[in-house]
Design a protein that fits this description.
374 residues, mainly beta, four-stranded antiparallel β-sheet, 8% helix
Length: 374
């Protein structure tokens, strides 16, 4: 009979080379990684954490430095152009939206780009402008036709009725190309049915209810020239008030300057990169050529400057932000303004009220692609 001791399993049957430090990496599958494996993985883990932390940190800094958000505007309506989702047949560049009470928006019309890059018509909408009573909207549309590598450009002025029972279908009121007009500056309404814009030292007035050619008036601005730039804001030129005060930007010996057109001739106003004339025509809000986080107020009657309005916006890591356009509310108590946010092509919109506090609105728009009206 065998001895019981012979059936006892050996106390240690581990192979002599069963030492994790001496085994190849594939022998460690299913085992806890040793110190050497952790050392090899540590740089990758640290890099991954840093990559995740950087955008999170930048987003957090931007959120913490941004002013409080509000859901809508205190009075009237905004119209603005913002990126929209593509449809099945076309690629939508931007949609023209109208704000509703409570901050919601509804789509008014689109601008389109065809899927076939070699043919079709591309459309751009700029410079939307409310009529004084808020029942109509004017805007400029540029149509670029591409046929067999040949390009033709047609600039037009369109009007849309916004009244509750109106059809709200845009209609063309003037083909600028047919009138041999290229780079217009505007648009603004000089009456309930008439639009005014500037081009080459001339003011043009168009009746939207007739097919009459535009009326031409030569601007009396001496040696000054109209202020034109690739990112010109609709608030720069021209701007009209209910009291028939007419203001626009011009390049003078002092630089970019607001000019007030009055019955006796042109009167120089403040030097301004951008400006907005209030609804009564009594004061101008503007940003000095050097920019900064301040809006200045100028009295049209006295030529004196009022108290500066400091404003704020969130920090961005992708470039210096700047104030790009201004609008007064229809009641003249509140200012809205856009601020660039590189690399995003559309600007953020903020408002500052009588309390002097800045708030951010839930909209984005190009600097020549929004307006505030009744």
């Amino acid at each position: 009979m065998p001895s019981p001791e012979n059936n006892t399993p050996p106390e240690n049957n581990t192979p002599e080379n069963d030492n994790p430090a001496e085994l190849p990496d594939d022998a460690l599958v299913g085992k806890d990684p040793g110190p050497s494996t952790l050392r090899r993985l540590r740089p990758w883990l640290i890099g991954a954490l840093l990559l995740a932390a950087i955008p999170t940190g930048l987003t957090l800094v931007g959120a913490l430095t941004s002013p409080p958000h509000v859901s809508g505007i205190p009075a009237g309506h905004f119209v603005y152009l913002e990126a929209d989702s593509p449809s099945e047949k076309t690629t939508t560049l931007r949609g023209l939206f109208l704000t509703e009470p409570g901050g919601k928006s509804r789509l008014l019309t689109h601008e389109y780009e065809p899927q076939d890059s070699d043919s079709g018509v591309r459309e751009w909408i700029t410079q939307p402008a409310f009529s004084p009573d808020g029942t109509r909207l004017a805007f400029e549309k540029q149509s670029i036709s591409l046929q067999e590598e040949k390009q033709s450009v047609d600039n037009q002025i369109w009007v849309m009725d916004l009244a509750p029972n109106a059809a709200r279908k845009p209609r063309m009121v003037l083909d600028l190309t047919d009138q041999h007009l290229k780079q217009i500056v505007g648009l603004a309404w000089d009456s309930a049915s008439s639009i005014v814009f500037l081009e080459d030292q001339i003011s043009y007035s168009v009746d939207t209810d007739t097919k009459d050619p535009p009326l031409r008036t030569t601007l009396d601005i001496g040696k000054a020239t109209l202020a034109l730039s690739p990112d010109i804001s609709a608030t720069r030129s021209p701007s009209l008030s209910a009291g028939s005060t007419f203001a626009f930007s011009a390049e003078t010996a002092l630089g970019t300057q607001v000019v007030l057109q009055k019955p006796g001739g042109a009167v120089p106003g403040p030097s301004a990169a951008i400006f907005a004339l209030d609804p009564t025509g009594d004061k101008i809000a503007f940003v000095p050529p050097g920019g900064g986080k301040v809006i200045r107020i100028y009295s049209v009657a006295t030529g004196k400057f009022g108290a500066d309005i400091p404003v704020q916006w969130g920090w961005s890591a992708f470039g210096k932000r700047r104030l790009t356009s201004l609008r007064w509310s229809p009641d003249g108590t509140t200012l809205a303004f856009t601020v660039s946010k590189p690399p995003v092509p559309e600007d953020e919109i903020f408002l500052v009220g009588q309390d002097g506090k800045t708030h951010q609105l839930p909209y984005r728009a190009g600097r020549s692609a929004w307006d505030w009206g009744k």
